[in-house]
Amino acid sequence: SKLDASALGFPARRTIVLSYRGNRGPYEAADTRKDLLAVARRVGRQIGTIRPPRLLLGHSQAGLILDRIIVEGAPLPDTAVTLAGPPPFPPSAAIPPPGVASRGAPGASAARAFSGLLETVGVASFDIDSPASPPNLRPILASTSPIPRLAVWPLADSVWLDSDWRRPGEVNVVALTDHVGVTKNSYAYAVADDFLSGREVAGHEVSWQGFLVGALRYAFEPWRP
Question: Taking the model in full, what pTM does it have?
Answer without folding.
Answer: 0.81
